[in-house]
Amino acid sequence: MDPLGKPPPSSEITPEPLYLRRRELLRDALLFTATSAGVGGSLLWLTQGRRASERQIQSTAANTTTASPTLTIAERGLYRVDEPLTPEGAVTSYNNFYELGTDKSDPAANAQTLRPRPWTVSIEGEVSQPLVVDVDQLLQWFPLEERVYRMRCVEAWSMVIPWVGFPLGALIKRVEPTSRAKHVAFTTLLDPEQMPEQRGDVLDWPYVEGLRLDEAMHPLAILAVGLYGKALPNQNGAPLRLVVPWKYGFKGIKSIVKIRLTEEPPTTTWNLAAPREYGFYANVNPAVDHPRWSQATERRIGELRRRPTLPFNGYAEQVAGLYSGMDLQRYF
Amino acid sequence: MSNRAPQPWLKPGVFVGALVPLIVIAGRGLRGELGANPISQALNQLGLVALIFLVAALVCTPLKTLVGWTWPIRLRRMLGVFAFAYAALHFLTYVVLDQTFDWRAIIADVTKRRFIYVGFSALMLLIPLAVTSTNAAVKRLGFVRWKRLHRLAYVVPILGVIHFTWRVKKDVREPVTYAVVLAVLLLIRAATFLRARRSGSSSQRSGEG
User: Fold this and answer.
1) Do B171 and A32 count as a contact with CB atoms less than 8 A apart?
2) ipTM of the complex
3) CB-CB contact of A47 with B48 (8 Å)
C-alpha cells in the first residue's frame, strides 16, 4: 500500500505557473478588495456619511414621540382636510429647522439638545395686558383642538399633518391689542447651547417671523403644541410653534419665546436672507414661481407623482378675502 | 510572468468601488430607506456622486506633477466616464421619477431656471467627452484635437459646482467646499502651465490636461 494514499488525478493538480504565483494572486485579490472597499466607502461617506442615517433617525423619532405625553383634545373634526395623513415617522424625521441643522434629517438627529420645559413665552408690544406665561399655563387657558392641515413647503413638497393646538387669535384677544397694533412678530429661542446651528451664521439668528394682525386673527392660524395627539417632538418646534396653513412652511416659526404686536411689519428671517425669493406674505401661490424653481406642482410626501399646488394651499375660500385688491405677484 | 500589467487590481477595484453608490442608492430606494422624500434624496445623491467623479478626474494630473505618482493617470478615463454615467442617471431620475415625463415642466425648468440650465449644460458638454473616451476616438480625432476637446473636463465641474451652489436654499457650505477643492486643482494647473511657459520650453509642456 502507498502510505500517502491514492494520488489525486492530474487534472486537479494546480498548474506550476499558477502555483508559483499563488502569493501574488492572493495579494492582488486583497488589493482589489481593499481598493473597491476604499473607493466605495469614500463615496458613501462623501454623499451620505456625515448625514445621520435614516434608520437612526426613524428610531430617534419613534423614541421622542413615544416618550411624549398624550394631550387632552377638547375638539376634533374642526377644519379637517379629507386627505390621507402623512405618516408620523415622516412628519417627525423630515424637517426644516435650521437651528438644529440644515439637512432635513438633522433636526431629528439633534432633537435631544433642545429642552422644551420649563418654557415661558412673552407676549408684549402694542397690547394693554402684556404677559410672560408658562407654556403649560397656555394649555390650561385654551382648549386644545385637532386640526388636520395641509403643509406646503416652499421647496415644493407637502404633507398632511394632524396638529394639536389653539387659535392664535384667542391668545391675542386675551392680551388686548391697542389700536396701533397692526402686525405680529414671533421670535424663536436664541440659545446656541440648545440650538447648535445658531453658532454658525447660515441665517440671522434668532429666527423671526411675522403676520399682519388680521392674518393672525384668522381662525385657521393656530399655535400648535402637538401633532398626532402627542406633545410636539422637539424637531417639529417644541413646545410651541405657529401653523398658518395657507402660507409656505417657513412662516410656521418653531420653538417660540416671544410674540410682539407692532405697528410696522417686522423684518422676517428668510425675507432678510433672500428678499427676491421669500416674501413677507409667502402665501402658497402656484402662479408665482420661486426664482429658482416652479411652485406650480408639489410632491406630497409618500406619493410618487407630483400634484398641482392649489392657490392658498387649498384654503382660498377661507382666506382669499384677506388679500382682496392686492397684487399677489408683487406681494408674494 | 513578468509581462503582467502593473497593479492589475487597480482598475477593477476602482470600477467596483465606483458602482457602490449606485447599488446602495438603488437598494435603499427599493427597500424604502431613503427617507421621507426618496426621489429628492436619490436625485441629490446621484448628482453629488457625479460631481465627486468630475473633481476626482482632475486630481490625477496634479498627483503626477506634484507627487510623481503615475498610476492615477490610468484611472482618469474611467473616472470621467463614471462622472458622465452618474450625471446621466441624475438627469434620468429628474425626468422619469421627479417630473414623470412632464416635458412642459422640464422645458420650462431647463430654459427658465438658471441652476437647472447650468446643470443641463454640464451634462450636454459631458456627452462629447464620453463619446470620444475610447482609444479609437483619440486616433480618429488626432491627439491634438482630442486634447483640445477634452479641455471641457475643466469647464464641466465648474458648471457642476455652480449648479450645486445655486440649488441649495441657503447653506452653501458643502458646495463651497467642492468649489475650493476645484479652485485649488485648477490653480495647480495654471501654475504648472505658467512655469512651463516661463522656462521657455513650451514644446515640452506636459501632455496631460
Assistant:
1) no
2) 0.91
3) yes
